[in-house]
Amino acid sequence: MRAQIAQRTLRTDRWWLPPLATFAGLLLISIYAAVRTFMGDHYWVDEYRYLTPMYSPCLTEECLPNAAHFGRLLPELPGFLTPPVIIIPFLLGFRVTCYYYRKAYYRAAWMSPPACAVAEPHAKYTGETRFPLIAQNLHRYFFYAASLLLLINVYDAFYAFSTGIGLGNIVLLVNVGLLAAYTLSCHSCRHIAGGRLKHFSKHPVRYWAWTQISKLNAKHMQLAWASLIFVCVTDLYVALVASGTIADLRFVN
Amino acid sequence: MGYQGHFRVWRGSDEGGGLEDFTVEVNEGEVVLDVIHRLQATQTPDLAVRWNCKAGKCGSCSAEINGKPRLLCMTRMSVFAEDETVTVTPMRTFPVIRDLVTDVSYNYQKAREIPAFKPPAGVAPGEYRMQQVDVERSQEFRKCIECFLCNNTCHVIRDHEENKESFAGPRFLMRVAELEMHPLDQADRVQEAQSSHGLGLCNITKCCTEVCPEHIKITDNALIPMKERVADRRYDPIVWLGNKLFRNKS
Ligand code: SF4
Ligand code: SF4
Ligand code: FES
Protein backbone atom coordinates (compact mmCIF):
# COMPACT_ATOMS: atom_id res chain seq x y z
CA MET A 1 0.00 0.00 0.00
CA ARG A 2 1.19 3.45 -0.87
CA ALA A 3 1.23 6.24 1.68
CA GLN A 4 -2.26 7.69 1.81
CA ILE A 5 -2.10 11.25 0.59
CA ALA A 6 -5.33 12.71 -0.72
CA GLN A 7 -3.96 15.73 -2.59
CA ARG A 8 -3.25 15.38 -6.28
CA THR A 9 0.03 17.16 -5.67
CA LEU A 10 1.71 18.88 -2.76
CA ARG A 11 3.73 21.15 -5.00
CA THR A 12 3.59 24.74 -3.79
CA ASP A 13 5.23 26.42 -6.79
CA ARG A 14 3.32 27.61 -9.85
CA TRP A 15 3.63 24.27 -11.65
CA TRP A 16 0.61 25.10 -13.84
CA LEU A 17 2.28 28.11 -15.43
CA PRO A 18 4.62 26.38 -17.94
CA PRO A 19 1.93 24.08 -19.38
CA LEU A 20 -0.49 27.00 -19.57
CA ALA A 21 2.03 29.18 -21.37
CA THR A 22 2.89 26.34 -23.75
CA PHE A 23 -0.77 25.73 -24.50
CA ALA A 24 -1.46 29.39 -25.14
CA GLY A 25 1.62 29.74 -27.35
CA LEU A 26 0.82 26.71 -29.47
CA LEU A 27 -2.81 27.74 -29.80
CA LEU A 28 -1.98 31.28 -30.93
CA ILE A 29 0.52 30.07 -33.49
CA SER A 30 -1.89 27.44 -34.83
CA ILE A 31 -4.57 30.07 -35.28
CA TYR A 32 -2.18 32.39 -37.06
CA ALA A 33 -0.94 29.60 -39.35
CA ALA A 34 -4.49 28.48 -40.17
CA VAL A 35 -5.60 32.02 -41.00
CA ARG A 36 -2.62 32.62 -43.24
CA THR A 37 -2.97 29.25 -44.95
CA PHE A 38 -6.58 29.80 -45.91
CA MET A 39 -6.08 33.44 -46.78
CA GLY A 40 -4.44 32.30 -50.02
CA ASP A 41 -3.05 35.79 -50.65
CA HIS A 42 -0.17 38.16 -49.83
CA TYR A 43 2.48 35.46 -49.91
CA TRP A 44 4.72 36.84 -52.66
CA VAL A 45 6.40 40.23 -53.15
CA ASP A 46 7.06 40.37 -56.87
CA GLU A 47 9.28 43.43 -56.77
CA TYR A 48 11.81 41.95 -54.32
CA ARG A 49 11.09 38.25 -54.86
CA TYR A 50 10.15 37.54 -51.26
CA LEU A 51 8.22 34.31 -50.82
CA THR A 52 6.86 33.41 -47.41
CA PRO A 53 8.13 30.04 -46.11
CA MET A 54 4.51 29.04 -45.48
CA TYR A 55 3.86 28.93 -49.23
CA SER A 56 7.13 27.43 -50.32
CA PRO A 57 7.27 25.60 -52.62
CA CYS A 58 4.14 26.86 -54.34
CA LEU A 59 3.18 23.99 -56.61
CA THR A 60 -0.41 24.32 -57.76
CA GLU A 61 -2.16 26.03 -60.68
CA GLU A 62 -3.44 28.92 -58.52
CA CYS A 63 0.08 30.01 -57.46
CA LEU A 64 1.26 33.34 -58.80
CA PRO A 65 3.49 32.40 -61.75
CA ASN A 66 6.62 34.09 -60.38
CA ALA A 67 6.13 32.60 -56.91
CA ALA A 68 6.16 29.08 -58.29
CA HIS A 69 9.93 28.57 -58.39
CA PHE A 70 9.62 24.99 -59.47
CA GLY A 71 6.69 25.43 -61.82
CA ARG A 72 3.00 24.90 -61.27
CA LEU A 73 3.21 21.15 -61.33
CA LEU A 74 -0.12 20.35 -59.74
CA PRO A 75 -3.66 21.13 -60.92
CA GLU A 76 -5.87 23.73 -59.28
CA LEU A 77 -7.08 22.73 -55.84
CA PRO A 78 -10.81 22.33 -55.26
CA GLY A 79 -12.94 24.58 -53.05
CA PHE A 80 -11.35 26.59 -50.25
CA LEU A 81 -8.03 24.73 -50.44
CA THR A 82 -4.90 26.82 -50.95
CA PRO A 83 -1.35 25.92 -52.12
CA PRO A 84 0.13 25.39 -48.60
CA VAL A 85 -2.11 22.37 -47.98
CA ILE A 86 0.32 20.37 -50.13
CA ILE A 87 3.33 21.01 -47.89
CA ILE A 88 1.68 21.56 -44.51
CA PRO A 89 1.16 17.84 -43.78
CA PHE A 90 4.94 17.41 -43.91
CA LEU A 91 5.81 20.53 -41.93
CA LEU A 92 3.13 19.86 -39.35
CA GLY A 93 4.04 16.17 -39.28
CA PHE A 94 7.64 17.06 -38.50
CA ARG A 95 6.71 19.34 -35.62
CA VAL A 96 3.92 17.13 -34.25
CA THR A 97 6.14 14.03 -34.07
CA CYS A 98 9.17 16.01 -32.83
CA TYR A 99 10.39 14.70 -29.47
CA TYR A 100 10.26 18.18 -27.98
CA TYR A 101 6.77 19.09 -29.18
CA ARG A 102 5.53 15.71 -28.02
CA LYS A 103 6.68 16.55 -24.53
CA ALA A 104 5.12 19.99 -24.87
CA TYR A 105 1.64 18.92 -25.89
CA TYR A 106 1.50 15.73 -23.86
CA ARG A 107 2.02 17.97 -20.88
CA ALA A 108 0.14 21.10 -21.89
CA ALA A 109 -2.80 19.74 -23.88
CA TRP A 110 -3.22 16.15 -22.77
CA MET A 111 -1.97 16.70 -19.19
CA SER A 112 -0.15 13.43 -19.20
CA PRO A 113 1.32 14.59 -16.88
CA PRO A 114 0.61 18.36 -16.57
CA ALA A 115 3.83 18.77 -14.56
CA CYS A 116 6.19 16.47 -12.69
CA ALA A 117 4.70 14.87 -9.59
CA VAL A 118 1.24 16.24 -10.42
CA ALA A 119 -1.24 13.43 -11.00
CA GLU A 120 -2.69 13.17 -14.48
CA PRO A 121 -6.47 13.08 -14.86
CA HIS A 122 -6.60 9.93 -16.99
CA ALA A 123 -7.58 6.56 -15.59
CA LYS A 124 -5.76 4.55 -18.22
CA TYR A 125 -2.42 5.07 -19.88
CA THR A 126 -0.75 3.18 -22.71
CA GLY A 127 1.85 5.75 -23.76
CA GLU A 128 3.16 5.40 -27.28
CA THR A 129 2.50 1.69 -27.55
CA ARG A 130 -0.66 1.75 -29.69
CA PHE A 131 -2.28 3.42 -32.64
CA PRO A 132 -2.37 6.39 -33.12
CA LEU A 133 0.58 7.36 -30.91
CA ILE A 134 2.72 4.48 -32.10
CA ALA A 135 3.00 6.51 -35.33
CA GLN A 136 5.30 8.93 -33.47
CA ASN A 137 8.00 6.44 -34.42
CA LEU A 138 7.78 7.76 -38.00
CA HIS A 139 9.43 11.00 -36.95
CA ARG A 140 12.58 10.40 -39.00
CA TYR A 141 10.62 10.27 -42.27
CA PHE A 142 9.15 13.65 -41.52
CA PHE A 143 12.68 14.77 -40.73
CA TYR A 144 13.75 13.80 -44.26
CA ALA A 145 10.77 15.59 -45.81
CA ALA A 146 11.31 18.71 -43.70
CA SER A 147 14.99 18.76 -44.65
CA LEU A 148 14.03 18.84 -48.32
CA LEU A 149 11.59 21.69 -47.73
CA LEU A 150 14.28 23.50 -45.79
CA LEU A 151 16.62 23.30 -48.78
CA ILE A 152 13.89 24.90 -50.88
CA ASN A 153 13.53 27.68 -48.28
CA VAL A 154 17.27 28.27 -48.45
CA TYR A 155 17.00 28.51 -52.23
CA ASP A 156 14.14 31.03 -51.87
CA ALA A 157 16.13 33.13 -49.42
CA PHE A 158 19.11 33.39 -51.78
CA TYR A 159 16.95 33.84 -54.88
CA ALA A 160 15.47 36.94 -53.24
CA PHE A 161 18.91 38.59 -53.24
CA SER A 162 18.79 38.87 -57.03
CA THR A 163 17.02 42.24 -56.85
CA GLY A 164 19.16 43.90 -54.15
CA ILE A 165 19.14 43.83 -50.38
CA GLY A 166 16.33 44.87 -48.07
CA LEU A 167 15.16 44.11 -44.56
CA GLY A 168 13.07 41.33 -46.06
CA ASN A 169 16.23 39.57 -47.21
CA ILE A 170 17.64 39.66 -43.71
CA VAL A 171 14.37 38.32 -42.30
CA LEU A 172 14.32 35.46 -44.81
CA LEU A 173 17.94 34.65 -44.05
CA VAL A 174 17.52 34.59 -40.28
CA ASN A 175 14.47 32.42 -40.81
CA VAL A 176 16.33 29.74 -42.75
CA GLY A 177 19.18 29.94 -40.24
CA LEU A 178 16.82 29.18 -37.36
CA LEU A 179 14.99 26.49 -39.32
CA ALA A 180 18.30 24.84 -40.19
CA ALA A 181 19.44 24.91 -36.56
CA TYR A 182 16.14 23.41 -35.43
CA THR A 183 16.20 20.70 -38.09
CA LEU A 184 19.83 19.78 -37.44
CA SER A 185 19.24 19.59 -33.71
CA CYS A 186 16.50 16.97 -34.19
CA HIS A 187 16.90 13.78 -32.16
CA SER A 188 16.41 11.64 -35.27
CA CYS A 189 19.10 13.64 -37.05
CA ARG A 190 21.42 13.07 -34.09
CA HIS A 191 20.69 9.36 -34.28
CA ILE A 192 21.17 9.10 -38.03
CA ALA A 193 24.36 11.16 -38.01
CA GLY A 194 26.11 8.95 -35.51
CA GLY A 195 23.95 8.10 -32.51
CA ARG A 196 23.12 4.66 -33.88
CA LEU A 197 26.80 3.61 -33.93
CA LYS A 198 28.21 1.34 -31.28
CA HIS A 199 31.82 2.07 -32.18
CA PHE A 200 32.49 5.78 -32.63
CA SER A 201 36.19 4.97 -33.00
CA LYS A 202 35.55 3.33 -36.37
CA HIS A 203 33.70 6.34 -37.79
CA PRO A 204 35.60 9.51 -36.90
CA VAL A 205 33.65 11.78 -39.26
CA ARG A 206 30.26 10.61 -38.04
CA TYR A 207 31.51 10.83 -34.46
CA TRP A 208 32.48 14.44 -35.05
CA ALA A 209 29.07 15.16 -36.62
CA TRP A 210 27.30 13.49 -33.70
CA THR A 211 29.32 15.57 -31.24
CA GLN A 212 28.36 18.82 -32.98
CA ILE A 213 24.71 17.86 -33.37
CA SER A 214 24.61 16.81 -29.72
CA LYS A 215 25.57 20.36 -28.76
CA LEU A 216 22.74 21.77 -30.84
CA ASN A 217 20.39 19.05 -29.63
CA ALA A 218 20.80 20.24 -26.05
CA LYS A 219 19.07 23.45 -27.22
CA HIS A 220 16.36 21.69 -29.19
CA MET A 221 13.49 23.18 -27.19
CA GLN A 222 14.77 26.74 -27.55
CA LEU A 223 15.34 26.23 -31.27
CA ALA A 224 11.88 24.71 -31.69
CA TRP A 225 10.27 27.85 -30.27
CA ALA A 226 12.62 30.33 -31.90
CA SER A 227 12.16 28.83 -35.36
CA LEU A 228 8.41 28.45 -34.97
CA ILE A 229 7.91 32.02 -33.86
CA PHE A 230 10.26 33.36 -36.48
CA VAL A 231 8.47 31.57 -39.32
CA CYS A 232 5.38 33.53 -38.28
CA VAL A 233 7.36 36.77 -38.06
CA THR A 234 8.78 36.14 -41.54
CA ASP A 235 5.37 35.34 -42.94
CA LEU A 236 3.87 38.42 -41.34
CA TYR A 237 6.61 40.62 -42.75
CA VAL A 238 6.13 39.25 -46.25
CA ALA A 239 2.35 39.60 -45.92
CA LEU A 240 2.64 43.22 -44.81
CA VAL A 241 4.97 44.12 -47.66
CA ALA A 242 2.99 42.11 -50.22
CA SER A 243 -0.26 43.77 -49.26
CA GLY A 244 1.32 47.22 -49.42
CA THR A 245 0.69 47.86 -45.71
CA ILE A 246 4.36 48.65 -45.12
CA ALA A 247 7.25 49.35 -47.48
CA ASP A 248 10.31 47.15 -47.38
CA LEU A 249 13.34 48.88 -45.90
CA ARG A 250 15.95 48.81 -48.70
CA PHE A 251 19.72 48.87 -48.08
CA VAL A 252 20.98 48.19 -51.59
CA ASN A 253 18.85 49.46 -54.50
CA MET B 1 20.83 32.60 12.70
CA GLY B 2 18.42 29.95 13.83
CA TYR B 3 14.64 30.23 13.62
CA GLN B 4 11.57 28.15 14.40
CA GLY B 5 10.50 26.44 11.19
CA HIS B 6 7.10 24.98 10.33
CA PHE B 7 7.19 21.39 9.21
CA ARG B 8 4.44 19.09 8.03
CA VAL B 9 5.52 15.47 7.94
CA TRP B 10 3.63 12.41 6.75
CA ARG B 11 3.42 9.84 9.49
CA GLY B 12 1.85 6.43 9.32
CA SER B 13 2.18 2.99 7.81
CA ASP B 14 0.55 0.93 5.08
CA GLU B 15 -2.57 0.88 7.21
CA GLY B 16 -3.03 4.62 6.96
CA GLY B 17 -1.61 7.87 8.15
CA GLY B 18 -1.55 11.56 7.49
CA LEU B 19 0.30 14.85 7.70
CA GLU B 20 1.33 16.07 11.15
CA ASP B 21 2.46 19.60 11.99
CA PHE B 22 5.62 20.42 13.92
CA THR B 23 7.53 23.53 14.90
CA VAL B 24 11.23 22.85 15.03
CA GLU B 25 14.48 24.76 15.21
CA VAL B 26 16.31 25.40 11.95
CA ASN B 27 19.93 26.66 11.86
CA GLU B 28 21.96 28.30 9.19
CA GLY B 29 23.53 25.95 6.66
CA GLU B 30 21.21 23.05 7.41
CA VAL B 31 19.51 20.68 5.00
CA VAL B 32 16.04 19.15 5.39
CA LEU B 33 17.54 15.91 6.71
CA ASP B 34 19.18 17.82 9.60
CA VAL B 35 15.81 19.14 10.65
CA ILE B 36 14.20 15.71 10.37
CA HIS B 37 16.97 14.41 12.62
CA ARG B 38 16.31 17.22 15.11
CA LEU B 39 12.65 16.26 15.11
CA GLN B 40 13.67 12.69 15.88
CA ALA B 41 15.98 13.83 18.67
CA THR B 42 13.57 16.24 20.31
CA GLN B 43 9.94 15.44 19.55
CA THR B 44 9.31 12.21 17.66
CA PRO B 45 11.88 9.56 18.62
CA ASP B 46 10.08 6.94 16.56
CA LEU B 47 9.99 8.92 13.27
CA ALA B 48 11.27 6.58 10.54
CA VAL B 49 13.63 7.96 7.90
CA ARG B 50 16.17 6.15 5.73
CA TRP B 51 19.56 7.75 5.20
CA ASN B 52 23.25 6.86 5.05
CA CYS B 53 25.84 9.18 3.57
CA LYS B 54 24.39 12.68 3.98
CA ALA B 55 26.41 13.61 0.91
CA GLY B 56 24.02 12.86 -1.94
CA LYS B 57 25.91 9.76 -2.95
CA CYS B 58 24.12 6.77 -1.43
CA GLY B 59 20.64 7.43 -2.78
CA SER B 60 18.89 6.42 0.46
CA CYS B 61 17.07 9.56 1.58
CA SER B 62 14.72 10.01 -1.38
CA ALA B 63 11.43 11.65 -0.39
CA GLU B 64 9.14 14.45 -1.50
CA ILE B 65 9.56 17.97 -0.21
CA ASN B 66 6.77 20.43 -0.90
CA GLY B 67 5.56 17.92 -3.45
CA LYS B 68 8.85 17.68 -5.32
CA PRO B 69 10.79 14.43 -5.37
CA ARG B 70 14.25 15.16 -3.97
CA LEU B 71 17.01 13.93 -1.67
CA LEU B 72 16.47 15.03 1.95
CA CYS B 73 20.21 15.49 2.42
CA MET B 74 20.69 17.67 -0.63
CA THR B 75 17.81 20.08 -0.10
CA ARG B 76 19.08 23.16 1.66
CA MET B 77 16.77 24.88 4.11
CA SER B 78 17.87 28.19 2.60
CA VAL B 79 15.67 27.55 -0.46
CA PHE B 80 12.59 28.03 1.72
CA ALA B 81 11.33 31.23 3.27
CA GLU B 82 11.48 31.27 7.06
CA ASP B 83 7.70 31.44 7.36
CA GLU B 84 7.10 28.77 4.73
CA THR B 85 5.68 25.41 5.78
CA VAL B 86 7.92 22.61 4.58
CA THR B 87 5.93 19.47 3.80
CA VAL B 88 7.83 16.19 3.78
CA THR B 89 6.20 13.01 2.49
CA PRO B 90 7.46 9.57 1.47
CA MET B 91 7.84 8.70 -2.22
CA ARG B 92 4.36 8.12 -3.59
CA THR B 93 4.99 5.42 -6.13
CA PHE B 94 6.30 2.74 -3.79
CA PRO B 95 4.51 1.07 -0.87
CA VAL B 96 5.13 2.81 2.43
CA ILE B 97 6.69 0.87 5.29
CA ARG B 98 6.56 3.57 7.93
CA ASP B 99 6.63 7.37 7.91
CA LEU B 100 9.18 8.45 5.30
CA VAL B 101 10.47 4.98 4.53
CA THR B 102 9.17 3.15 1.47
CA ASP B 103 9.67 -0.36 0.15
CA VAL B 104 11.67 0.08 -3.05
CA SER B 105 11.86 -3.60 -4.02
CA TYR B 106 10.05 -2.87 -7.31
CA ASN B 107 13.35 -1.37 -8.44
CA TYR B 108 15.42 -4.40 -7.46
CA GLN B 109 12.94 -6.64 -9.22
CA LYS B 110 13.27 -4.58 -12.40
CA ALA B 111 17.06 -4.59 -12.12
CA ARG B 112 17.04 -8.39 -12.07
CA GLU B 113 14.90 -8.54 -15.20
CA ILE B 114 17.63 -6.95 -17.31
CA PRO B 115 20.02 -9.50 -18.78
CA ALA B 116 23.59 -8.95 -17.61
CA PHE B 117 26.46 -7.64 -19.73
CA LYS B 118 27.35 -10.25 -22.34
CA PRO B 119 30.99 -10.17 -23.43
CA PRO B 120 32.09 -11.58 -26.79
CA ALA B 121 32.60 -15.35 -26.80
CA GLY B 122 36.09 -16.39 -25.76
CA VAL B 123 37.06 -13.05 -24.24
CA ALA B 124 37.68 -13.36 -20.52
CA PRO B 125 37.41 -10.52 -18.01
CA GLY B 126 40.76 -8.77 -18.03
CA GLU B 127 41.04 -9.18 -21.78
CA TYR B 128 38.46 -6.54 -22.62
CA ARG B 129 39.92 -3.92 -24.93
CA MET B 130 37.91 -0.83 -25.81
CA GLN B 131 38.52 2.60 -27.29
CA GLN B 132 37.98 5.51 -24.95
CA VAL B 133 35.47 7.26 -27.26
CA ASP B 134 33.41 4.08 -27.45
CA VAL B 135 32.98 3.63 -23.70
CA GLU B 136 32.69 7.33 -22.96
CA ARG B 137 29.10 7.74 -24.06
CA SER B 138 27.57 5.47 -21.44
CA GLN B 139 29.74 6.75 -18.61
CA GLU B 140 27.17 9.44 -17.90
CA PHE B 141 24.67 6.73 -16.92
CA ARG B 142 27.11 5.28 -14.42
CA LYS B 143 26.83 8.39 -12.28
CA CYS B 144 23.47 7.00 -11.13
CA ILE B 145 23.23 6.67 -7.35
CA GLU B 146 20.08 4.52 -7.48
CA CYS B 147 17.96 6.92 -5.51
CA PHE B 148 14.96 5.87 -7.65
CA LEU B 149 13.58 9.39 -7.66
CA CYS B 150 13.20 9.07 -11.43
CA ASN B 151 11.14 5.91 -11.18
CA ASN B 152 9.13 7.50 -8.38
CA THR B 153 8.33 10.55 -10.49
CA CYS B 154 7.59 8.82 -13.77
CA HIS B 155 3.85 9.16 -14.34
CA VAL B 156 3.73 5.83 -16.18
CA ILE B 157 3.81 4.04 -12.83
CA ARG B 158 3.23 6.89 -10.39
CA ASP B 159 -0.27 7.44 -11.76
CA HIS B 160 -0.89 3.91 -13.04
CA GLU B 161 0.04 1.16 -10.62
CA GLU B 162 -1.03 -1.45 -13.19
CA ASN B 163 1.84 -0.48 -15.49
CA LYS B 164 4.45 -1.58 -12.95
CA GLU B 165 4.52 -5.09 -14.32
CA SER B 166 5.35 -4.10 -17.87
CA PHE B 167 7.52 -1.02 -17.25
CA ALA B 168 11.12 -1.04 -16.06
CA GLY B 169 11.11 2.69 -15.29
CA PRO B 170 13.59 5.30 -16.52
CA ARG B 171 16.36 4.02 -14.23
CA PHE B 172 16.37 0.59 -15.82
CA LEU B 173 15.56 1.63 -19.37
CA MET B 174 18.70 3.71 -18.95
CA ARG B 175 20.53 0.56 -17.85
CA VAL B 176 19.35 -1.14 -21.06
CA ALA B 177 20.67 1.83 -23.05
CA GLU B 178 23.98 1.70 -21.19
CA LEU B 179 24.48 -1.96 -22.12
CA GLU B 180 23.21 -1.42 -25.65
CA MET B 181 25.80 1.34 -26.14
CA HIS B 182 28.58 -0.70 -24.54
CA PRO B 183 31.20 -1.45 -27.22
CA LEU B 184 31.66 -5.07 -26.17
CA ASP B 185 28.14 -6.10 -25.24
CA GLN B 186 26.84 -8.80 -27.58
CA ALA B 187 23.22 -9.13 -26.45
CA ASP B 188 20.39 -7.82 -28.60
CA ARG B 189 18.65 -5.34 -26.37
CA VAL B 190 16.61 -3.29 -28.78
CA GLN B 191 13.61 -5.57 -29.29
CA GLU B 192 13.48 -6.34 -25.56
CA ALA B 193 13.52 -2.67 -24.64
CA GLN B 194 10.17 -2.31 -26.37
CA SER B 195 8.60 -5.71 -25.73
CA SER B 196 9.79 -6.60 -22.20
CA HIS B 197 10.88 -3.36 -20.55
CA GLY B 198 8.08 -1.07 -21.70
CA LEU B 199 10.02 1.63 -23.56
CA GLY B 200 6.88 2.40 -25.60
CA LEU B 201 5.07 3.50 -22.44
CA CYS B 202 7.46 6.40 -21.97
CA ASN B 203 6.08 9.54 -23.59
CA ILE B 204 9.35 11.47 -23.21
CA THR B 205 7.85 14.11 -20.93
CA LYS B 206 11.21 14.33 -19.13
CA CYS B 207 10.18 14.28 -15.47
CA CYS B 208 12.87 11.67 -14.79
CA THR B 209 15.47 14.11 -16.11
CA GLU B 210 13.96 16.95 -14.09
CA VAL B 211 14.34 15.19 -10.73
CA CYS B 212 17.62 13.32 -11.20
CA PRO B 213 20.01 14.58 -8.47
CA GLU B 214 22.97 13.52 -10.62
CA HIS B 215 21.66 15.63 -13.52
CA ILE B 216 21.84 12.71 -15.91
CA LYS B 217 20.09 13.55 -19.19
CA ILE B 218 18.06 10.35 -18.96
CA THR B 219 15.51 11.23 -21.63
CA ASP B 220 17.79 12.88 -24.19
CA ASN B 221 20.75 10.55 -23.90
CA ALA B 222 19.24 7.19 -22.97
CA LEU B 223 15.51 6.96 -23.67
CA ILE B 224 15.25 8.85 -26.96
CA PRO B 225 18.34 7.14 -28.45
CA MET B 226 16.75 3.82 -27.48
CA LYS B 227 13.46 4.85 -29.10
CA GLU B 228 15.38 5.69 -32.26
CA ARG B 229 17.06 2.30 -32.21
CA VAL B 230 13.69 0.62 -31.81
CA ALA B 231 12.39 2.68 -34.74
CA ASP B 232 15.35 1.45 -36.83
CA ARG B 233 14.37 -2.09 -36.13
CA ARG B 234 10.60 -2.12 -35.82
CA TYR B 235 9.08 0.91 -37.45
CA ASP B 236 11.11 1.36 -40.56
CA PRO B 237 8.52 0.88 -43.32
CA ILE B 238 11.15 -0.30 -45.78
CA VAL B 239 12.35 -3.01 -43.41
CA TRP B 240 8.74 -3.85 -42.60
CA LEU B 241 7.80 -4.17 -46.27
CA GLY B 242 10.86 -6.32 -46.93
CA ASN B 243 9.86 -8.65 -44.11
CA LYS B 244 6.28 -8.85 -45.38
CA LEU B 245 7.30 -9.60 -48.93
CA PHE B 246 10.23 -11.91 -48.47
CA ARG B 247 10.47 -13.36 -45.04
CA ASN B 248 6.89 -14.24 -44.15
CA LYS B 249 6.73 -16.97 -46.76
CA SER B 250 9.17 -19.17 -44.91
S1 SF4 C 1 10.56 10.75 -19.90
FE1 SF4 C 1 9.61 8.73 -19.98
S2 SF4 C 1 10.61 7.54 -18.41
FE2 SF4 C 1 11.09 9.71 -18.00
S3 SF4 C 1 9.50 10.32 -16.54
FE3 SF4 C 1 8.73 10.83 -18.59
S4 SF4 C 1 7.52 9.05 -19.23
FE4 SF4 C 1 8.80 8.42 -17.47
S1 SF4 D 1 18.98 8.06 -12.81
FE1 SF4 D 1 19.13 9.80 -11.41
S2 SF4 D 1 17.10 9.88 -10.44
FE2 SF4 D 1 17.27 7.87 -11.39
S3 SF4 D 1 18.00 6.52 -9.80
FE3 SF4 D 1 19.80 7.26 -10.90
S4 SF4 D 1 20.48 9.09 -9.80
FE4 SF4 D 1 18.40 8.62 -9.09
S1 FES E 1 13.12 15.62 -32.27
FE1 FES E 1 12.34 17.60 -32.54
S2 FES E 1 12.51 17.76 -34.70
FE2 FES E 1 13.20 15.71 -34.41
TrEMBL record, chain A:
It comes from the Bacteria. The chain crosses the membrane at residues 15-35, 80-101, 141-161, 167-186, 223-247. Keywords: Membrane, Transmembrane, Transmembrane helix. This is Uncharacterized protein.
From TrEMBL, chain B:
InterPro entries: 2Fe-2S_ferredoxin-like_sf, 2Fe-2S_ferredoxin-type, 2Fe2S_fd_BS, 4Fe4S_Fe-S-bd, Beta-grasp_dom_sf, Helical_ferredxn, SDH/FRD_Iron-Sulfur, Succ_DH/fum_Rdtase_Fe-S. Residues 7-92 form the 2Fe-2S ferredoxin-type domain. One of its GO terms (molecular function) is oxidoreductase activity. Pfam families: Fer2_3, Fer4_8. One of its GO terms (cellular component) is plasma membrane. The keyword DNA damage does not apply. One of its GO terms (biological process) is respiratory electron transport chain. Keywords: 2Fe-2S, 4Fe-4S, Iron, Iron-sulfur, Metal-binding, Oxidoreductase. Its cofactor is [3Fe-4S] cluster; [2Fe-2S] cluster; [4Fe-4S] cluster. Pathway: Carbohydrate metabolism; tricarboxylic acid cycle. NCBIfam families: dhsB, PRK12386.1. Belongs to the succinate dehydrogenase/fumarate reductase iron-sulfur protein family. This is Succinate dehydrogenase subunit B. It comes from Saccharothrix carnea.
